[in-house]
Design a protein that fits this description.
Layout (H helix, E strand, L loop, with lengths): L4 H6 L1 E7 L2 H13 L7 E5 L6 H17 L12 H7 L10 E7 L2 H13 L3 E2 L12 H6 L129
Antiparallel strand pairs: 1-3, 1-4, 2-3
Helix pairs in contact: 2-3, 2-5
């Protein structure tokens, strides 16, 4: 992998160890999807795996990585001299797994790389150490040493989880209902009136012996039919609200312990 000296010297490295090859492959894929170019990603595999299964997984991993970055300027596994020296210091390379280093150029990119590593079950190693592409030669030559002060920042992730379930169903209730219905019926009415004057009868005695008078009445017949009494509509709506999150974070402060006279200057006339 090609990394120029000026870029590597001023860049922070995020380093993570993956015990699972597929997690490392997914993390590298997500890093490139996030816009981090291949020439800022270094990969090294641990030599702790001696079984045929571990060897097979390692070889398969490198084939997939090579196919994924086919046509791009990269050289995985042999990293640049600077990152190769730095990665070799990690004890995790003695285990079976993959060590991935990402050179970041901004705090936002650094945080995104750390989030991707954590999402794919990586163990962050030396993620807060700034690596030097010149292996500290300039630092040692000038007598200057670098110490970074770190602070934790809160990163909020939201996850949608089921909280309740509502079921709507219909239930049949039987009840009595009374209705007053007016009806009519016929009754027999007999009226007898005396006839005066002795008028002559028009028929012989013994004829017209009976008269039939039919009587009727109204009867109630009940018919039931369903009608729409009420309509219910069901839906969901999103309610926006704020929740207060309180969490403790750590930060580092610089403490200077002095021994002796650190402000001492050479006396005049002394070379």
């Amino acid at each position: 992998m090609n990394v120029n000296s000026s870029q590597a010297t001023n860049s922070n490295y995020v380093v993570g160890f993956f015990s699972d090859y597929s997690d490392a492959e997914s993390a590298i894929h997500d890093l490139t999807e996030a816009g981090i170019p291949a020439n800022r990603i270094a990969v090294a595999t641990g030599n702790g795996g001696s079984s045929s299964r571990s060897t097979h997984e390692g070889e398969s991993f490198w084939r997939k990585i090579a196919n994924f970055f086919e046509g791009k300027d990269h050289n995985y596994g042999t990293a640049s001299n600077a990152t190769a020296d730095d990665l070799s210091r990690y004890g995790s390379l003695k285990q079976d797994g993959v060590l991935v280093s990402v050179s970041t150029v901004s705090p936002e990119e650094r945080q995104e790389a750390e989030d991707i590593f954590e999402e794919h079950n990586a163990k962050l190693e030396g993620a807060q150490v700034q690596l030097s592409a010149q292996s500290g030669s300039d630092v040692e030559g000038s007598g200057m040493q670098r110490l970074q002060l770190l602070s934790e920042v809160l990163r909020v992730h939201k996850e949608r989880v089921p909280t309740a379930e509502v079921r709507l169903r219909k239930e049949v209730i039987t009840e009595n209902q009374s209705i007053e219905v007016p009806v009519t019926r016929e009754e027999l009415v007999i009226e007898r009136h005396p006839v005066e004057g002795g008028a002559t009868a028009s028929s012989e005695i013994g004829s017209d012996r009976e008269i039939r008078v039919p009587l009727s009445e109204e009867q109630v017949r009940v018919e039931k039919r369903p009608i729409v009494k009420e309509e219910v509509t069901v839906g969901k709506r999103k309610v926006q609200e704020s929740r207060h999150v309180n969490e403790q974070v750590k930060r580092e402060e610089l403490k200077v312990d002095q021994q002796g006279d650190v402000t001492r200057r050479p006396k005049k006339g002394v070379a």
